[in-house]
Design goal:
heterodimer; A: mainly beta; 6-stranded mixed beta sheet; 12 strands; 0% helix; globular; B: mainly beta; 4-stranded antiparallel beta sheet; 11 strands
């Protein structure tokens, strides 16, 4: 069965500090990988996605993520966090020729002033 | 404006009383999907549809029904709601029928409480 693991339920960082949110997936072949952000009371917005090619992908709001096949990981990073980045972040996985979609349990980011 | 709309946004109901949550998109998307979001579980896919009259089960379809009679609409039906269906529901759509390869656009969510 497919699974997407986000091991950190809550993370707190200071404004201006760097951020890394972890995501691991279980799937034999190369998946389609996504990071979404959910601000309080809002729907989900795509930050970035990876399908193939360069394993370091750039997204909106200064986020980037790196696909590491050997570790089955797709970690999200930002070099300098802003207070407006406080939200919940979801990693998600799709598969070629398979129409189900799987989300991780989410990581809530708190930003200290 | 390109968007996915859901109605109602908030709903309180009682056990066993049939309800429908509507979802509509104005982007001519092929793929549509319903998710429920529960604390600590993230989003779980309930049903999805690759095109008109083509629907299939996601990971948690029990207690739900869907239909896709028109491309733009994908209602979620709870024939006999139970308290364990209390949740936050999201509808999403993406451009082509192979929806898991593409960006999904999410509606604002429907918060359902079943008493």
């Amino acid at each position: 069965a497919q699974s997407v693991t986000q091991p950190d339920i809550h993370i707190t960082v200071s404004e201006g500090a760097s951020l890394e949110l972890r995501c691991n997936y279980s799937y034999g072949a190369t998946p389609y990988l996504f990071w979404y952000v959910q601000s309080p009371g809002q729907g989900l917005q795509l930050l970035l996605k990876y399908f193939s090619g360069d394993t370091l992908v750039q997204g909106i709001k200064g986020f980037e993520a790196e696909f590491k096949r050997s570790q089955s990981s797709f970690n999200l990073r930002k070099p300098s966090v802003h207070w407006s980045d406080a939200a919940e972040y979801f990693c998600a996985v799709g598969r070629y020729n398979f129409n189900k979609f799987y989300f991780g349990s989410g990581t809530k980011l708190n930003v200290k002033p | 404006e390109a968007q996915v709309t859901q109605n109602p946004r908030y709903l309180i109901t009682v056990t066993g009383k049939k309800l429908t949550v509507t979802c509509s998109q104005n982007m001519n998307h092929e793929y549509m999907s319903w998710y429920r979001q529960d604390p600590g579980l993230g989003l779980r896919q309930i049903y999805y549809s690759m095109n008109v009259e083509v629907t299939d089960k996601g990971d948690v379809p029990e207690g739900y029904k869907v239909s896709r009679k028109e491309k733009r609409n994908f209602p979620l039906i709870l024939e006999s709601p139970s308290p364990n269906q209390t949740s936050l529901y999201f509808c999403a759509s993406s451009l082509s029928r192979t929806g898991t390869q593409e960006t999904q656009y999410f509606g604002p969510g429907t918060r359902l409480l079943v008493l």
